[in-house]
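User: Fold this one for me? It's Cip1-like core domain-containing protein.
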Amino acid sequence: MLRQIALFALAALPGSLAQVTEGFENGWDQTAWPTYALDCSQGGTVALDTSTAHSGKASIKVTGAGGYCGHIFVGTTKVPSSGDIYVRTWLKASKALTDSHVSFITMPDSAQGAKKHLRIGGQSKILMYNRESDDATLPDLSPNGIAASKALPTGSWQCFEYKLGADGSIDTWLNGEAIAGLTTNSSNTNAAQWTRSSLKPKITGVYFGWESYGGDTNTFNYDDIAIASTRVGCT
Ligand SMILES: *[C@@H]1O[C@H](CO)[C@@H](O)[C@H](O)[C@H]1NC(C)=O
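Assistant: Here's what I get for Cip1-like core domain-containing protein.
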């Protein structure tokens, strides 16, 4: 009987229930949340941080070193295998995005091929996406494209959310507000480079951290991460 109730409850789970939620309050489970540093790992570190948190007492801290091999990420492969994917994280960056290209979220993307990633980071001092296989950016890094995105505030917790639609679309929110330059829908006139490919991302993991292709270093804290099939929001 109990088992039947449990099964029924599972079947009746609301769509909004997150696939993954993690606030690191019970520590850093390195099996569920492994580090990720493809090809090389020189200098970047990941640690549980009990000195700052968005909620509770702990967050995960990524200290990213300069150069590609200074990269380090921590994340999960537990992502919805089909349908829309929504990711929400609270994050705190210690330094502003510069003109140099960096990534703070990387996602292995089998649609692009082996060892290729859909990446979220910065360039031209604003938030942007980068598709590793053809190096396309969203938005286009023209003056108008740059103006259509946003800088990432430093030193305080920010709610960063994005959607990877099953149809290949992307939408992004910072503290609940959509970022006009970081959507692929027709309202974005600065998505020409991105949309010249019809590739639909097929991600197999989401990893939070730091990777810089110049010399930039940074420290990011991540907390209250949620990965789900519907939008989770900031609260
Ligand atoms: C397109 O994206 C923007 C920014 O995310 C959003 O405000 C707008 O409602 C979207 N438009 C459509 C037609 O989906």
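One thing worth pointing out: The CA atoms of residues 31 and 122 lie 29 Å apart.
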